[in-house]
Amino acid sequence: AQKVTQAQTEISVVEKEDVTLDCVYETRDTTYYLFWYKQPPSGELVFLIRRNSFDEQNEISGRYSWNFQKSTSSFNFTITASQVVDSAVYFCALSEPETGANSKLTFGKGITLSVRP
Amino acid sequence: DTGVSQNPRHKITKRGQNVTFRCDPISEHNRLYWYRQTLGQGPEFLTYFQNEAQLEKSRLLSDRFSAERPKGSFSTLEIQRTEQGDSAMYLCASSLFYPLLQGYEQYFGPGTRLTVT
Predict the structure, then answer these.
(1) Tens of pLDDT along B12-68?
(2) Phi, then psi, of A2 in degrees rounded to 5
(3) Does residue A104 belong to the interface with chain B, where contact is any CB pair within 8 Å?
(4) Do the Cβ atoms of B95 and B25 come closer than 8 Å?
(5) B42 with A95: Cβ contact below 8 A
């Protein structure tokens, strides 16, 4: 069975601090996909990134970066120089393998990030 | 470019009543998913469609729940004889799927918040 663990429940930082959100996953499959979504106070889930299990390259997008390590089954998300607009709930998710495509997502419980001015 | 839309955004109903929610996916997306999110939790998968075919249903989807996607476009989720435990945010997502292509991310709608009194 798949499982996603986000051990941190709430994180509070001051603006401009760097913050890392942890995600640990469990799956028996060798092919899978990992995702991060952001849920701002408005409630709509916003897609941030998708990562294939066979691509362990880290990725950077502006102030966001992701560190994928299969050896530790982790897919951590770092926000550099955090801003108040980053305040949201962040979800890590895992999808079951299917030939060449994603299917249902298994989500972690989410991490509430508060960035104070 | 319109995203996933859901109606209504909020629904308050009395226990025992039936409710129906609608989801309109992104127009070219052939897959449509329903999730349920309760307070402080990540979304949980309920069911998904590829075109008009319902391919998988979660054990969470009791007999009181039924979902349809009659023409492979919009979808409805009906809950019969609502119970207080059905109170949650019901999220719809859509994605594009073609065999042999790599995974595509799911795009979420704003959700329908159901309150059963």
Answers:
(1) 999 999 999 999 999 989 999 999 999 999 999 999 999 999 988 888 888 999 999
(2) -85, 150
(3) yes
(4) no
(5) no
Residue with tokens 């073609």: B98
Rounded distance, CA B54 to CA B83, Å? Answer: 24
- To test the contact with chain B by mutation, choose from A39, A103, A111 the residue with the greatest count of B C-beta atoms within 10 A, namely A103
How do B10-13 and B112-116 pair as beta strands? Answer: parallel
- For residue A101, pLDDT beyond 50: no
Q: Does A61 touch chain B (CB under 8 A)?
A: no
Residue B102 pLDDT more than 80?
no
Contact criterion met (CB < 8 Å) for B110 and A100: no
Residue-level pLDDT at A3: 93
Higher pLDDT among residues A110 and A58, named by residue: A110
CA distance B97 to A1: 23
Q: Do B42 and A107 touch (CB under 8 A)?
A: yes
Which residue of A lies nearest to B46 if distances are taken between CA atoms?
A104
Measure in Å the smallest separation between the Cα of A12 and chain B Cα atoms: 17
CA atoms within 13 A on the CB side of A72: 9
Tokens 């991060």 sit on residue: A36
The angle subtended at Cα A88 by Cα A102 and Cα B47, nearest 5°, is 30
Contact B19, B113 (CB under 8 A): no
